[in-house]
Amino acid sequence: MKKVRAVQYGCGKMGKFLIRYLQEHGAEVVAAFDINEAVIGKDIGEISGTELTGVKVQPLNEAEATLSRLKPDVGVIATLSTMADLNDAFSLFARLGINAISTGEEALYPWNSSPEITKELDQLAKTTNCTLAGSGYPDMYWGVLIDTLAGSMHKLTKIKGSSCYNVEDYGIALAKGHGAGLTVTEFNQQIGNYNDLPYAEISQKIESGEYAPPYMWTQNGWLASRLGLTITNQTQRCVPQIATEDIYSDTLKMTVKKGDVLGLSALVITETAEGITLETECIGKILTANECDKNSWQFIGEPNTAIEVNNPATVELTCANLVNRIPALIKSPAGFITTEKMPNNVFMTKPMHEYL
């Protein structure tokens, strides 16, 4: 059986891990693309810290011609977070009938946030017989892990989750999307002004693209679908996380002043017809020296239980989880197939192509 032939679309902070993880799991990275002049022309081995391959990073405007010629098995998209921003990349792969998977957070479950874009991509992928999906850290640590632990409960009335992560690790688009660097007034005008809107109204604003939802909005949709729950109401509230002293952001290339915004806490509460409430919070901000990434979940019912993951290597886990999803992606039906409909990931002890 031939190796899985992959292309890397986006060679930034995530790309350097994704390229190496693909190679070390037996895939052949046959092309790479980026918009950053600093990496265009570099060998992918130089970017990922592996051996030189002769494969050079190309500008994005060469992607369609190269993909049409190479006809790879899968494209790995590591660029931006929202479906509006990912639409062009997903559409490119779908038009050419190439399976594609993205680290973009909204791509994990965009049916309740960008339904029109997702439906169009789903139809296009079905027409050209390929599969599109999103994966990463939330796929496992906010999704599969929670579903698995819920399976150990006798009764379940509420799942409470909180995840804290450093926006410095994910690039400028994500940091700005979390309000980092804004004043509190600017935050309240741009992000906090949608707090506590009724479910129908906030859903309409999210689905129309007027407002980009917090990650837990889509994550709760993933969990509800995986657990077989029917959503009856959902609210969200975004609260600024305030700097207690000046702190320099390498990602923003600026000093966030004391009293300004380091990021946000976004709390999403989902009520269901089955009587199980999902109460999930993501805290994304510029972390101070004494803070670390943290993931905490509580299961309330019989018996009560809890789990906490401290200081996870979120970037590396995002990339590893996505790479481990690729065999299931390739084997899934055509369309935009969210990962709650796929089997749980397994650690690949053999080369990737042996799982197909």
UniProtKB/TrEMBL annotation:
Molecular-function annotations in GO: 4-hydroxy-tetrahydrodipicolinate reductase
GO biological process entries: lysine biosynthetic process via diaminopimelate
UniProt keyword annotations, A-Z: NADP, Oxidoreductase
Gene3D superfamilies reported for this sequence: NAD(P)-binding Rossmann-like Domain
Pfam families xref list: DapB_N
Residue ranges the record marks as coiled coil: none
The keyword rRNA-binding appears for this protein: no
Protein name listed in UniProt: Dihydrodipicolinate reductase
Species of provenance: Providencia stuartii
